[in-house]
Design brief:
Keywords: Lyase, Purine biosynthesis
Helix content: 55-70%
EC number: 4.3.2.2
Number of helices: 21
Number of domains: 3
InterPro entries: AdenyloSucc_lyase_C, Fumarate_lyase_CS, Fumarate_lyase_fam, Fumarate_lyase_N, L-Aspartase-like, Pur_lyase
CATH topology of the largest domain: Fumarase C, Chain A, domain 2
Low-confidence stretches: 285-291
GO molecular function: (S)-2-(5-amino-1-(5-phospho-D-ribosyl)imidazole-4-carboxamido) succinate lyase (fumarate-forming) activity; N6-(1,2-dicarboxyethyl)AMP AMP-lyase (fumarate-forming) activity
CATH class of the largest domain: Mainly Alpha
Family: Belongs to the lyase 1 family. Adenylosuccinate lyase subfamily.
Distance between the termini: 21 Å
Order of helices and strands: HHHHHHHHEEHHHHEHHEHHHHHHH
Strand content: under 5%
Strand order of the largest sheet: 1-2
């Protein structure tokens, strides 16, 4: 019952994947701290400090915490008001041979900041793989409907025709930019490394009796043991909080993309042209049994707005880090960094679920085109008349008068658009009446949309997804299922 008696964030308890939720869990955090302490001890021993083999062995054998160790750590933190020292003590309890050398020469940010950089890099990798799957799913949708004409909208008013697939390429292009930005952020990440209390490495210089080369080698060894190619050349007590800005910016930008896609789908659902998946037992409204609400797209919009705001936390935190550090970043980052990745993870899963079950209604789309196309075809009709020797200005006036009459039928009387019937009945248009069906073919109004779709998928999407890392993610991806 305890889980029901205290607040739990729905990000982890209701929506997020187990993998992302575990990444930011207490178990994984403190396991990572212990791995960092082990790497530090291994490197220090390699460089000549008197650390026993038994100490290293005991540390290796006790990287994972059990329930009893969590209790010890909680009691210690309550007493000391210091989480890192509480866990130094707890690690020493289960690895007594190492108790005197755990955290040797380090400051708290050695484990907290380096662990955060490990989490950020891992989380970005997880997001990239899920994003690649979403792009692949939408690409398949764009290919399938690349030549299906549909009414375009500017200002959400009927505009020139496009195709269902071409509209999807606009979504995919933004997702590709997000893929690029997130990959750049991940690949740019460095390690804080072994820098000491204010970043001067003074404590380590003392440990190695003033040997600068050994201190530099220690920094390099720990960085390599932690799987990073480089460490930031200079830091304060922390790595610069501007790094968090660089990470949260592309996540927020992806949030904007996801919100735009989901908003388009919500509008299309209202038009009954395209719908997100709707299960046979799903209920749209507790009162209105007929309703099919786009709840998945609404969830995407809801969480994307939250994702976009978290960027501000990183910006404001970075701007107020006085001199070598302050502690007003800590509590904020404990909330904002996991929240950003949990939220992005949920949005991606939901977006994948939507992309895998989109339903298109061609007959509804065709009916809406038929309602608007006669007005859009007026220029084609005028040009056809001119080609037959007609006067452009006279033809324009004729079609203008008939268009207004047809508009009256639609707007004032609620009737169908009868412009073409009026054209067929007017003797003035006799020279082109045999061409009207061709002039009104929707496919003659979509320009190069089908060709643009094919070229975009071949020259931009396929190369982007050919990356071995992303391809592996796509090949192993399963159909996205929502827990709620």
């Amino acid at each position: 019952m305890e889980a029901f008696e205290t607040y739990q964030t729905p990000l982890s308890s209701r929506y997020a994947s187990k993998e992302m939720a575990h990444l930011f869990s207490a178990e994984n955090r403190f396991y990572t701290w212990r791995k960092l302490w082990l790497s530090l001890a291994v490197a220090e021993k390699q460089l000549g400090l008197p650390i026993s083999d038994e100490a290293i062995t005991q540390m290796k054998q006790n990287l994972h915490l059990d329930v009893e160790q969590f209790k010890i750590a909680a009691e210690e933190e309550k007493k000391r008001r210091h989480d890192v020292m509480a866990h130094v003590h707890t690690f020493g309890v289960v690895a007594p041979a190492a108790a005197g050398i755990i955290h040797l020469g380090a400051t708290s940010c050695y484990v907290t900041d380096n662990a955060d950089l490990i989490f950020l890099r891992t989380a970005l990798t997880m997001v990239l793989r899920k994003l690649a799957v979403v792009i692949e799913r939408f690409a398949a949708f764009a290919k399938q409907y690349g030549d299906l004409p549909t009414l375009g909208f500017t200002h959400f008013q009927p505009a020139q025709l496009t195709t269902v697939g071409k509209r999807a390429t606009l979504w995919i292009q933004e997702l590709l930019w997000d893929l690029r930005n997130l990959k750049r952020a991940r690949d740019d990440l460095g390690f804080r490394g072994v820098k000491g209390t204010t970043g001067t490495q003074a404590s380590f210089l003392a440990l190695f009796d003033g040997d600068h080369d050994k201190v530099e080698e220690l920094d390099k060894l720990v960085t390599e043991l932690s799987g990073f190619s480089y460490a930031y050349p200079v830091t304060s007590q922390t790595y610069s909080r501007k790094i968090d800005v660089d990470v949260l910016n592309p996540l927020a930008s992806f949030g904007a993309t996801a919100h735009k896609i989901a908003t388009d789908l919500r509008l299309l659902a209202n038009l009954k042209e395209v719908e997100e998946p709707f299960e046979s037992t799903q209920i749209g409204s507790s009162a209105m049994a007929y309703k099919r609400n786009p709840m998945r797209s609404e969830r995407i919009c809801s969480l994307s707005r939250h994702l976009m705001t978290l960027q501000q936390d990183a910006l404001m935190t970075s701007s107020v880090q006085w001199f070598e550090r302050t502690l007003d970043d800590s509590a904020n980052r404990r909330v904002s960094l996991p929240s950003a990745f949990l939220t992005a993870d949920i949005v991606l899963t939901t977006l994948q679920n939507v992309s895998e079950g989109l339903v298109v209604y061609p007959k509804v789309i065709a009916r809406r085109i038929a309602q608007e196309l006669p007005f859009m075809a007026t220029e084609n009709i005028i040009m056809a008349l001119v080609k037959k020797g007609g006067d452009r200005q006279e033809a324009h006036e004729k079609i203008r008068v008939l268009s207004h009459e047809a508009a009256y039928q639609v707007k004032q009387l609620g009737l169908e658009n009868d412009l073409i019937e009026r054209v067929r009945k007017d003797a003035y248009f006799d020279p082109i009446k045999g061409e009207l069906d061709v002039l009104l073919d929707p496919k003659s109004f979509i320009g190069r949309a089908p060709e643009q779709v094919d070229k975009f998928l071949k020259e931009w999407v396929e190369p982007a997804l050919a990356d071995n890392e992303l391809k592996a993610g796509i090949d192993t991806a399963r159909k996205a299922e929502l827990s709620v």
